[in-house]
Amino acid sequence: MSCKKSLGLSKANVTFSVDTLVFDTVFTTVGSFTQQFKIYNPDAKNIVLEEVELMGGSKSPFRINLDGSSGTNFTNLGINGKDSLFVFVDVKLGVNGKNLPTIVEDSIRIRTNGKDQYMNLMVWGQDAYFHYKEVLKESEWKSDKPHVIIDYAAVDSAKTLTISAGTKIHLHKNALLYVYKGSLKVEGTKEQPVIFQSDRLDVFYKDISGQYYGIYFNQALPSKINYAIIKNGTSGIHMYSQDNKNTKETLILTNTIIQNNSSYGIYLFSNPWIKMENCIISKNDVYGLFILQGALVDINHCDILGYGKTSENAAALALKNYYTNNDDKITYVSPIKGFIRNTVIYGYRDDEIIYDTLESEAVNTLSYNTCLIKSTISNSLPQFIKTLWNLDPDFKEINNYNFNFGLTSPLNNNGNPNYLIPFDMNGKPRSITTPDIGAIEID
After folding, report:
1. CB 386, CB 379: distance < 8 Å
2. Which of 99, 122, 303, 441 matches a 20 to 30 Å C-alpha distance to 49?
3. Whether the model pTM is above 0.70
């Protein structure tokens, strides 16, 4: 326990919990995650910190809080024998006008018994393009600097946003990329995917879900996402309805990974049309793919997986063909139509497909062909064709999102060549006679 009066009889010096306090990349104008270190009194006697000073003073991008008080200079702080004192540090950088990250340093001087000791502070700073409540016209986002979305960036009606290969997009708390009656073109490649993630880059946030909302399509024009990674949001992709004039897919999603979202990997509501090829959806906390009140789907060579934090909730696929308006109590029913082929639907649950449907004949137009499925659904239902039921796909490292598998896996060589996609998500050619089920073709 620390106190603010002199306790000191000790002639020793203090020690620190770390030598240098290092922050991961911090975007200019966006504050960092708060870090901390401890100042230890190794002596049995009380000790006095004669002075604690942030060397950069008021011009430093670092800010410190010591013993509950913020400032740049503190004097006569006592630490009891064999006790410690917390120092909390965060950082906010100004724009540096550079595309590449730069290193910013400062230090904290701690004087005890006339001797100065230093705690070094270091941060990698990065300029970015900032989009704050921005309505985009015809736009192209380049990869030379990250793009940070605060609140929202909206693609306006009849406009197109094109995102170049290798672009990194960071979304602030609750932020979303909103496509309203416009079009989104994400042009990633295998070598340079487009990454959607939080603007908190500290290691602590690496696997925290729900840090932002996601990508929201509202009656969008035909859009494409190729080679993207969408992670750690609330709903990776949210699609609402489809423009009545649109005669093509609302979204073509290819070679994309969607993982670790706090609600849904993909959420389809009120009859959008999605085509998915070579995609892996995994470890989302509620459902991997959730269809509510109708959709048209064309899914081929994908992994739709559960494996969320709570096995009771995290089903791979959930289908509900109705929606009840809470105000007028009217129930709207729309069919769920289309095809799921050569796809893995698997996870921790006994039932990785959840049906909650009215007018079941409307749902039966969704058919599954040559899929590996974990479920207790009756295998005599006609919409399940050549299904492999409840066979462990033998994924390599589920905890590390490694969904490769071995030669003895039931996925190996058991796909349907009639629905062949020539290359897998890694660009590897598939067998034209015995392709593997799922997004990955193994050796």
Report:
1. no
2. 122
3. yes
